[in-house]
Amino acid sequence: MPTKYTRFFWLPVGALALAVILALYWAVPGQRGPAPNPPPSPSASPAPPGFVGRAACAACHAEQDRLWRGSHHDLAMQVADEQTVLGDFDGAGFTKDGVTSRFFRRDGRFWVNTDGPDGKLADFEIQYTFGFTPLQQYLVALPGGRLQALSIAWDSRPQAQGGQRWFHLYPGEKIDHNDPLHWTRFSQNWNYMCAECHSTHFQKNYDPASHGYQSTWSEIDVSCEACHGPGSRHVAWAGSKDGNNPPDDGTLGLVFHLDERRGVHWTIDPATGQATRSQPRATAQEIETCARCHARRGQWFADYRHGQPLLDTHLPVLLQAGLYHPDGQIDGEVYEYGSFLQSRMYRAGVTCGDCHEPHSLKLRAEGDGVCLQCHAAGKYASTGHHHHREDSPGARCVECHMPAKTYMGVDPRRDHGFRIPRPALSAKLGTPNACANCHEKRPARWAADQLRRWYGHDPQGYQAYAEAFSAARRGGVEAEAGLAALLAHPDQPAIAKATAAAELGRWLSPDSLPSLLDALDHADPLVRAGALQALEPLPPEQRWQAAHRLLRDPVRGVRALAAETLAGIPTDQVPPEDQAALHAAGAEYLASLRLNADEPGAQVNLGNWHAAKGEMAAAERAYREALRLDPGWVPAYVNLADLYRQTERDAEGAALLREGLLQQPRAAALHHSLGLLEIRRHDLAAALVSLKRAVELAPGDTAVSYVYAMALDSAGQHRAAEKVVEAGLKQAPGDRALGQLRSLWKAAGPSSQTRP
Length: 756
Fold this sequence. Notes:
756 residues; alpha+beta; 9-stranded antiparallel sheet; 34 helices; globular
């Protein structure tokens, strides 16, 4: 069966042991929590509320409207005109990669002359502005209802800060019209990438038949109903003479109430200098309302309903390499939600509105004042705590506890993990620490020594998973135990546990399987979702036994992931009492793929779904559609070539992979797949060339090293094969497949007649 993106090497002895563990695990009464209740069946209900627009809200909520006007939400997207366009369109030019783009006005409208989809210079009208500070982007309409974001943006900061200039969002990369990052390509498409979070009640409306969009919105910017939900019933309630027509059911006609802060106060404990919430935060509605857009996440379903769990429609990314450092600090462009979930503040019950005024989006107090709402000034705003001059950056709370990283060239964003700087961890693992932002010429060990002198110990902080994730990323022998221990930790963040569960898929053994099975019953749906992603290495029967009850999970995103995990289970092997649940969850998963039919990754997953069910023609169509959407999409080439292998069409697979290498010559996965195909065709010499190149391009991919080593050994190049294994184990000391191969070879001795 084709896999989504990663292939796992599974040893039979491990599979047998895991089967025994699974059998014992479910044989013991009382070890599993009750299966979640199935989602309620739909029933007849009145017409859904409709969107009425900001003006209807402002009639009664004038102060909130005043605060909102001029905010980032208000100016998130605007029609391009004399009042909204900030950039220099008076004939200004900008040159990059041999292309000079010119910005100008014509007939009262704004235009850019730049390289289009075919690489040729042409004039394109600016339709909309996108944002306003510290940069402003511009949207251009292309055929098929597409709006595309130019990669040349306007730096709207004052000139004294380096602004008032055109700049490119990818300054260090050479980009032409064939590059995935070119402004005309899918990665810069507004309909898919941007629109849901810059407009109110956005509907993408992609038509796979015409390959076009008929996208709509109720308001062009992020207005009242983007957060509060459709307001027609509330307006009707407010407009009734006595407030009781229609009858008042306590909702005031609102879709849901953002009232988690109502009646709540924080009291600072004089002994600790820290505040306690007057009542525990029982829900996360406010936070998840913000997270819909202030998170790195994928949208799975279009029918977002305000107040529902985030995972009913969206799936946040986990603490993955390239997006987060091993200790959870922000690395890639991940926005705020993922780091805030890791914080002690989130655990204590803090919501976004405790720090940010939700309409103006400004902080509730200037400078450190926002922190001193809950942290006693006498203890924390003192040199005894921060050990810096009062007028220095090091005395500011955010500089130590919310270090910033700059994205999009000019946009610094602060980490919302509110963590304690840990330079000792930096010295050990290479993670960033806030001290280095000011003391950039000093090594981490110097900063660690300073903190030890001040506090008498190395600060530890709340987040205790850096070493586990670091070991997993570098393939350390201690990775499995560290990930399992994190899952068992009683008070670590759910997003960290979800990440640990997902990572265990690479390390799963009888020792860690019980931890993963427990994660499938975790109270937080994000942990259950992470655990589902780790089940791929299990044989189908064991995957079913582990995951089938999540087909009835109360959260739709979890049900859809369960259906994806169980796609390869033959229907005739499913107990009758579970077939309806499997069918319903499968329909939800397919709906998520249909929503994202304009995205090549969704088409690959659709192809995988059909391939798992033996529907090869449908799978091929999906893979081909992925390549039509993005001719450089590597997983589509790999999985389609694997489908050709399964259907005995390796000649077509070879041509396909070579076509992919013309698009992506440095894609290790394509060289690796071609090498495997050449082995099947008994062309070992060609296979060695392809597999060697794959290892060169992906030296840390132990699966690639394993195959190359086996091929070298088959060619009689035993010493070279051993060197590849040793190099792979140096990259990932805990890799089981390479470790077992080395042990087998050592036991067999150097003679090719005795090597396994």
